[in-house]
Amino acid sequence: MSLSNKRPILILGATGTIGAYAALYLKEKGHAIIATGRRESDNGFFEDFGISYYSVDIKKASAFALFEKLNIGTVIHAAGVMPATMIGYHPHEFIDSIITGTLNVLEFTRKIGAGRIIFTHSRADSNYLMGTKEKIPSDIEKKYPKTGDHSIYAICKNAAVDMVEHYFYQHGIKRFIFRLPTIYAYHPNRFFYVNGIRKPIAYRYIIDQAISGSPIEIWGDPSLEKEITYVGDLCQCFEKAITSSHDGGIYNVGRGIGVSLDEQINGIVEIFCRSDNKSQVNYRPEKPNSRQFIHDVAKTESELGYCPTFEYIELLRAYKSEMEKNRFKKLWGTEGDYD
């Protein structure tokens, strides 16, 4: 690891799912971590792991003055409003947090001379390529859904990617932009928002059904495949980007291997059901199909040395272990806090 990569890493959005897991993962790997989030307090969670925490609103450029003398070498930008956490529909919040916020992050990164930025991008820019088993490349024409709660969100994320690219070409800041599928990571909140309406997260609902031994339905074509990725592999991508000699670019996160709906459900039954109370799996082919997509991760592997380590069953075991340990209880609470 070069001397520049031993400088502290600033994680923006560290109280969110991806940011929190990344902070602990990178700390365990020996990196100096500075965690930030919109929350006024982290309840002392990060201090327990030897990590400093600061409350920061990325929409305010002045908020970054806190870090100007900390010799930060890498900024991980995982902050910003998401449709999955938005009650109702407030498109201006996407503009404020993703576009204005990212510009503030980039200006701060340039001002302090940090060598690289890591940015988490939405897979919504590739929705138009979904529906087949043909792998979606890392480098594609970015588009956006024409309707729904992800439309303005994806427009803003695409614009943020373009700004990150501009700061590479204009100011030489290495950029590592990761297009994310659904990242499987335990969080006690079993709900999310779809078009502003609260709903149970589908795979979490199925896990709960398996834990209770209740019947589980497989809707539509059970052979349709989906990219299934564990947070540990995303964290690996982050560390590879931190230590890479490449200038960066846009990279897919995933395994490059689809997991069929049949495999998904039966895997959950295998890992989460009690041996004496197995859920019955019922097939409902008349129901709507799930969306099918697989990421091509060849570029991520060849340029960053990324090697996916969590196959689907191993992913479920890791998820169950986190559920049982609930390492993040001090930060996020328990499932009962969200019911």
Question: What are its keywords?
Answer:
alpha/beta; Rossmann fold; 7-stranded parallel beta sheet; globular
Please give a structural write-up.
Strands 3-2-1-4-5-6-13 form a 7-stranded parallel beta sheet, with helices on both faces. Helix 1 links the parallel strand 1 and strand 2 (33-37). The chain has a domain at 3-185 and 230-254 and 294-308: Rossmann fold, CATH 3.40.50.720. It is built from 9 helices and 15 strands. By secondary structure, it is an alpha/beta fold. The chain is globular, with a radius of gyration of 20 Å.
> Oligomeric state of the chains?
single chain
Order of helices and strands: EHEEEHEHEEEEHEEEHEEHEHHH
Q: How would you write the strand order of the largest sheet?
A: 3-2-1-4-5-6-13
Outline the biggest β-sheet: 7 strands, parallel
Write out the CATH superfamily name of the domain at 3-185 and 230-254 and 294-308. NAD(P)-binding Rossmann-like Domain
Tally of helical segments? 9
CATH domain class name of the domain at 3-185 and 230-254 and 294-308:
Alpha Beta
Cα-atom radius of gyration: 20 Å
The whole-number mean of residue pLDDT values reads 96
CATH fold field value of the domain at 3-185 and 230-254 and 294-308:
Rossmann fold
Structural class: alpha/beta
Low-confidence stretches: none
Helix content: 25-40%
Q: Percent of residues in beta strands? A: 15-25%
CATH architecture of the domain at 3-185 and 230-254 and 294-308: 3-Layer(aba) Sandwich
| CA(first)-CA(last) distance | 45 Å
Query: Tally of extended strands?
Result: 15
Shape: globular
